[in-house]
Write a structure and sequence with these properties.
The protein is α/β, with parallel strands linked by helices. The chain contains 11 helices and 13 strands. Strands 6-3-10-13-11-12 form a 6-stranded mixed sheet, with helices on both faces. It has a 3-stranded antiparallel sheet with strand order 7-8-9. A two-stranded antiparallel ribbon has the order 1-2. One of its GO terms (biological process) is peptidoglycan catabolic process.
Amino acid sequence: MRSALLLGLLLLISTLAFSQSKYRRALAKPGDGVNTLLYRNGLNPSQHLRQFQQLNRANLTKRNGLIIGRTYLLPHRSAPKPAAGKTTSRAKTAAGARAATSHGISTTPLLPAKLFGPAYSPVPVRDRALRGAVYYLSPGHAGPDPGAIGQYGPHKLAEDEYAYDVTIRLARVLMEHGATVYMMVQDPNDGIRDESVLKMDYDELTYPQQRIPLSQLGRLRQRMTQVNKLYARHKGAYQRLLSLHVDSRSAGQNIDVFFYHHQNSQAGLRLAKNIHKVFTARYKRAQPTRPYKGNVSVRSSLYEVRTSHAPAVFMELGNIRNSKDQRRFVVADNRQALANWIYEGLLADYTGR
């Protein structure tokens, strides 16, 4: 009897071990929330969150949060196949996405292969949570102007390269959820990069394919002329401009992500507050002993904020000269987390309007 029970127990243990071996695994890193972990591994929280929680119940906090340093099982990417002769709404969405173009970023495999890079294309449309929303994404500087420069060991870190990488990651996430996205600055060959040190170049173009002028005012005027033309084309739609920058302060000054808006723009203020709320919550979860000090304030003199016809938010992502802030940029997962958190704020703003 005892031997039979022992044999049954061994069979159960081996069955569980075999079952768990079928799943991919991912390590929870500092700054990760469940959504961030899922997005980083190509999974959509709206489709996979419940299964993730069921698979990892024993390794989650009381509030279903991650424990940094632990390994988690990942749900399978594949979805159930529709019955023969039937087309699901998701299949229709995917078919429509393959034929759609988001003016400057196409959802077909061709253009993303150039803009996102082969490792991150094509862009799958996972849902339509942002359908009807139009975003103008403007990474700071570019072309002949690399922006702020930080020293990282023997390497130089250029503001425009890191602002661009976060922005192009954000563009991809927005497109995954059905948004129309315009990258107002486009690099024809960099794509999304996972290296720590992003090599400087000067070949970026202003949408649609304009050479970027040397003059700072000329660059901003060129960019905003295009934004406002597109705004008129999409008249009546929900439209927002996000300008992403990296600050340069004294090397000893560690800063959190902060936000500017125009004093007369209630929509810009609301958008900034929605993104700020996500960052506050994420920092509280990831670093409970360290308060988040990023803030929302008025800066109406900024050219993009002042001249944009779409409600605008100007973001400073950190100090490129500070060693602690540099980890926010040189770790690819951290750049993706920035993009994911911004997306969550944008989604909250869009659905709560």
